[in-house]
Amino acid sequence: MDDAFITYRYSENLANTGEISWNPGDREFGFSSLAWVLVNALAIKFGLSLPMAAKLLSLISTLLVAWIIHKKVKGELAKGLLASVFLLFPYTWFHAISGMETMFFTLILTLYYLLSERILFGDRVSLCDRALLILIGVLLAITRLE
């Protein structure tokens, strides 16, 4: 959980001073996810408090992934089973309420997969689809570099 609070400090400093730093004026980076720092700083700007906002965003991401599984998987048995396994897996909930970026990353990765599938197997692929795929790919990279 130390990582979560490290991220929160960077987010708070960004929201309050406009600098991504541990201490205002310093130029070091000790966070693991630039996107999560930015998302949490935005939450602070909207008046939400950390860590509650981060946990809420993780929980919403988890539920959106489950909803996407339920909507996109073909076959009633398969969609129900996959969504249930995802939601009943203990580590899903550990990450959903950890306040870290894991479920946010899972949501972005799921969206990237769906858009990639549409581009690869769709009849009509627009320039917008391709640009969105690049944008989501960049978001993936700044969320989890590994």
In short:
By secondary structure, this protein is mainly α. It has helices at residues 2-17, 34-45, 52-72, 76-88, 90-96, 102-121, 127-143.
What are the salient characteristics of this protein?
single chain, 0% strand, mainly alpha, 7 helices, 146 residues
Low-confidence stretches: none
Helix/strand/pairing class, anyone? mainly alpha
Count every helix, treating DSSP H or I runs of 4 or more residues as helices.
7
* Mean model confidence by pLDDT: 93
User: What is the H/E order?
Assistant: HHHHHHH
Shape: globular
DSSP helix fraction? over 70%
Provide structural commentary.
- There is one protein chain.
- By secondary structure, this protein is mostly helical.
- It has one domain.
- It is built from 7 helices and no strands.
- It has helices at residues 2-17, 34-45, 52-72, 76-88, 90-96, 102-121, 127-143.
- Helix 6 (102-121) runs antiparallel to helix 7 (127-143).
- It is globular.
- The mean pLDDT is 93.
Topology:
Blueprint: H1 2-17, H2 34-45, H3 52-72, H4 76-88, H5 90-96, H6 102-121, H7 127-143
